[in-house]
Amino acid sequence: MSSGLLLSKYSIGVGDRFAHQARAQLQACMKAAEQGVDVIPVWNKSNREHTIIGSNPAGTRAAADEAVRSLGWEKPYHVDADHINLESVDKFINSSDFFTIDVADWIKTPSHPEKVQTFLERHPELVGNLQIPGIEHRFRIGPDFVLRTANKYLLAVQQAGRVYRHIERKKGTGQFIPEVSMDETDAPQKPVELLIILAALADEEVPIQTIAPKFTGRFNKGVDYEGDLAKFAEEFSNDVAVLAFAIERYGMPGNLKLSVHSGSDKFSLYGPIHQILKEFDAGVHLKTAGTNWLEELIGLAEAGGAGLELAKEVYAQAYSRRDELCAPYAAVIDIDPGELPSPEAVSKWSSDEFVSALRHDPKSPAYNSSVRQLLHVAFKVAAKMGTRYLDLLSEMESSIAKNVTENLFERHIRPLFIGSTEQ
Fold first, then answer.
1. pLDDT tens profile 241-297
2. Boundaries of every domain in the chain
3. Partners of 98 in the beta sheet?
4. What's the CATH number for 10-290+410-418?
5. Dihedral angle at the C-alpha atoms of 244, 250, 255, 256, nearest 10 degrees?
6. Residue 204 Cα to chain centre, angstroms
């Protein structure tokens, strides 16, 4: 199973909700290249974000192309149609060369019993004692376990196949990078469950280059990981081993790697992930999004004047509309209302006070994770401001760009891909 367009070993999904920070984001990847590590940028934006902001996929492509041209970037780069399905994919066909196929709505929907039985008969190797190189213990797998897992995931895999073939008809074989998202389910996949999913994807002839499984713990928006670090490291290591096994056993693409969704600001995970990647000589795709929008707010506040006043206004509106703004993200945010200062209090903050509360520096006593999470989901407030917000982004570009580049490189790329936290 092969693909013409190949995703590089290390890649980072960079969300740019208002399509103004592509240059600053690319500069972070250029800093990595200067240190001998190629981290390929993938500009990602979902259909929901386009709808909220009133943008379109062509704008994301144009911003990426212009950044690449103006900075002379000669390495690969991609534009991701993030979390698409059959209903939303067509608007991304011309602009994207990376497609994150979201099958969350099909997970756990029972598949046809005959198809499940056919899958079991097709894969007798999944039953019995299974040894996966890189995982110390053997797995004892009964046919009932395979049947239950196939019943949970097979319909989702088949839907991924339908979406993949739809894109393939439009763009041509090997002309795009497919990812499948399996992270929106009730529990982390066990190694054997992930292997069963990959076997089913091979049956569907979907040459995925990345897959996003569900990991243990909470991946809240814009803040650090919450959970058992040792358990996460074990899961991640096992998943990397399973992917390597599937490449050999099922002929999956040789560059197949894990994709970590909601990966921005998960600082405590980057060290363990880096070490595991070194041990397996494996790659990873880290998907970030809202951290960039928050750096825009930080840059505006740091610039002072009209920028600081607009940042305070965004907070005031977000505070008054917090139930509405937070509802779609209830599963991935943990805001303590008692930790949210009143808009009246914030209105008196200096530039330093606003920046210190919002900037993700867990060592700072002024850092407020509840403020950060509320503002993370408040980008639609800025979207409603229209050109007033966009004009300030252009006017205060130098302050914003500095923060965007530093955040992406120092807090994300350096610890994960380079393996150093020194600044």
1. 999 999 999 999 999 999 999 999 999 999 999 999 999 999 999 999 999 999 999
2. 10-290+410-418, 293-404
3. 80, 177
4. 3.20.20.70
5. -70
6. 24
